[in-house]
Amino acid sequence: MTKYLAAEIGDTAELLADDPIWLVLIKVVGIFAFLVVMTLFMINWERKVVARMQHRPGPNRVGPNGWLQSLADGLKLAFKEDIRPVLADKWVYFLAPVISCIPAFLAFSVIPIAGKVSIFGEETALQLVDLPVGVLVVLACSSIGVYGIVLAGWSSGSPYPLLAALRSAAQVISYEIAMGLSIVAVIMFTGSMSTGDIVGAQASTILGFAPAWFGLLLFPSFAIYVVAMVGETNRAPFDLPEAESELVGGFHTEYSSLKFALFFLAEYVNMVTVSALATTLFLGGYHAPWTGDFLNTGWWGLLWFILKTLAFLFLFIWLRGTLPRLRYDQFMKLGWKVLVPTSLVWIMAVAVIRTGAIQQLSTAQRLIALGVVVGLVLLVSFLLPDKKVADTKGVPLAGSGFPVPPLDLAVPKAAPKRKVKVANIPADDTAKAVTTGKEAE
Amino acid sequence: MSLLVNLLAQQPEPVQRVVDEVTTGEAVAFWVLGPLALAGALGMLFARNAVHSALWLVVTMLSLGVLYMVQQAPFLGFVQIIVYTGAIMMLFLFVLMMVGRDSSDSVVEVIRGQRLAAALLGIGFAVLMVGSVARALTSVEPAGLAEANATNGGNVGNIGQEIFTDYLFPFELTSALLITAALGAMILAFVGRDGKPARKTQKELVEERFQDGTRVGSIPGPGVFATANSVATPALLPDGSVAEESLFDVIEATDRSVLTDDVAEVAGTGDQPDSRALKGSES
Questions:
Q1: Global confidence as pTM
Q2: How far apart are CA A254 and CA A432, in angstroms?
Q3: Other CB atoms within 10 Å distance of the CB of residue B27
Q4: Contact check, Cβ <8 Å, B244/A418
Q5: Quick check: A425 and B93 CB within 8 A?
Q6: What interface predicted TM-score (ipTM) does this complex get?
Q7: A62: which DSSP letter?
Q8: pLDDT digits (tens, 9 = 90+) for A106-133
């Protein structure tokens, strides 16, 4: 319980330590294949779900029920002509898709996919590596990955991608802070940054029945992480770097062929990775929602892991299908004025609670501490200035915010009837048949 | 902060040499990453384009980060990557803010004595660096990795304690420096509207628009199809009076006599085309 940041090697790391090289290779290929297949699946799934939300069929031509559509699209993309704009910065333009793609795959290596399994008689955990700083690997990879977007936008030599690159840089700098802070609370509870240990710490139950997932225990962190992960992956409603209605295609406007495909791949792999990290950190990773061995050992972990990850991926699609894109300043406001301060306050609270738990305080001491906290909150709330009363000189605004006439408005007299202007008509007018509204009056 | 992390990171290095043997893997990693880091540093110095300079710096920083990981400081390695990618991103933004996209070095000296000052400060910094490295190599007794990790549950805990106790002041000082740099860049890059009044906010604009009593909605269309199919028909207000705005000025101003032929044609009373003719009437 009173474990500080762990120096000792976790169980998973021990299991992984004696992996023979062929097993490592199998895992590497397996992870790569998993991510690529997930990408192909995700694109199709997204199109189908969004189509269903919009009452249209979606892709249904290629393959059984249209499920091979994205594979066909990928093959087509590979054979397209590769165009490099004249104004582009040659090397950076070439490197950008690679930079955005490699870290996306790399980050998945620390994700625990299942617990202890046996592959060809070799006991191992379904995870490539379990570093003592596993969570930081994902953060580092995402911060490198964004270079791909920024450099792509800069090197394209065209204004819209450049704007997208600037947006993306600001977006990632702001949302990575929120993401990192939301992870801090989990690390404080676990006492370790290793993903294997974090999943291990969520194996028990709280209150006798609910799983001890950090998503329940540390719900504010979970909520902030989920918002930040959508911002981090440039997905709707935070897809400002590729806002079609404002920036053509955003950072990849000038890209075509395989380079464009790489950006696409990186985006979807990133989505899978952040979803998998959310599963690992907050939803108990590969554990079933109950304790005990029933459907909860060995390869069953793979099922739970994939189900939880798919739930997050569905959330991504759902958000895209329902929410309009945020305006840029609203987006920044959300990040800096809501997510980051909330995270900081919440981390303070978690630190205090943890210290209380570790120090074995007596009930009286806990009550005093609680009283001090409540007193501080009250003090702050009294010291905060009241909301400014809107000046009454302006247009009176009703509750709805629309300008409406005041309630005591004197109804003006009806306007005098307009005298109908009739042009001088010669006496022998033959056009009696023509009637107008004016004459009807 | 990053500088401090760097300095802290260098402590385990002599430990490796003194206590442990350098493994083959570590040696290989060093001989691969060392030249890369050096190339990055040189590239940063000699690249003409400011953004390319920043990118070369990324190579150096990533190489250093991996070197830390090889020397059993994975936390430091990844923090190096996270912090420096963010830092260089800021640098990148500074460049774009200050000099624009097509940024290349200008050889014109704009500040008097700039080179002299730069040379002096550079030499001073080099002396400081050499002094501290020399001291670290000679007079500091390395404690050893195992001993350093014995307290506070390991590497990470120790770094945290050092930063927030003994090195708190330099740590805060560094962050103040970074904030100053960011603010300075913003002020330098900000294109002010000198002398012009501040721009109104959207809310102010909306209220202003409603304040002066002008019509906000669209002007009513003519009363076509209400009682007639002529655009000359005025729209009626709810109390039955004519909505002035719905009247078409041109029609109102036109004398009726000018329209006699048109009126006759619409009414079907004028010259009618011959029903057997192939063309319409000549007139």
A1: 0.71
A2: 68
A3: 11
A4: yes
A5: no
A6: 0.71
A7: S
A8: 888 888 888 777 777 777 777 888 888 8
Q: Do A133 and B78 touch (CB under 8 A)?
A: yes
Task: Specify the pLDDT at position A194.
Answer: 84
The structural domains of chain A, with segments of one domain joined by +, span 82-357
A257-282 helix and A159-190 helix, angle to the nearest 10 degrees: 20
Are B82 and A136 inside 8 Å of each other by CB?
yes
Q: Cα(A227)–Cα(A313) distance, rounded to whole angstroms?
A: 13
All domains of chain B, ordered by start, with CATH? 2-102+120-189 (1.20.120), 220-271 (no CATH)
Long-range pairs for B62-65 at CB < 8 Å and ≥24 separation? B62/A144, B63/B33, B63/B34, B63/B36, B63/B37, B64/B6, B64/B33, B64/B37
d(CA A186, CA A179): 12
CA distance A298 to A285: 13
Alpha-carbon dihedral angle through residues A23, A26, A28, A29, given to the nearest 10 degrees: 170
Which of A423-432, B217-226, B231-240 is least confident? A423-432
Q: State the angle between helix axes of B24-46 and B50-70 in degrees (0 to 180), rounded to the nearest 10.
A: 160
pLDDT digits (tens, 9 = 90+) for A138-159: 888 888 888 888 888 888 888 8
| Owner of token pair 């989505």 | A271
**B257: Cβ–Cβ under 8 A, 6 or more apart, which residues?**
A423, A424, A425, A426
Interatomic CA distance for residues B99 and B120, integer angstroms: 26
Distance CA A7, CA B159 (A): 13
Nearest by CB to residue A5, choosing from B55, B153, B227, is B153
The nearest alpha carbon in chain A to B49 belongs to A89
User: CA-CA distance, A167 to A162, in Å (whole number)?
Assistant: 9
* Alpha carbons A129 and A112: distance in angstroms, whole number: 9
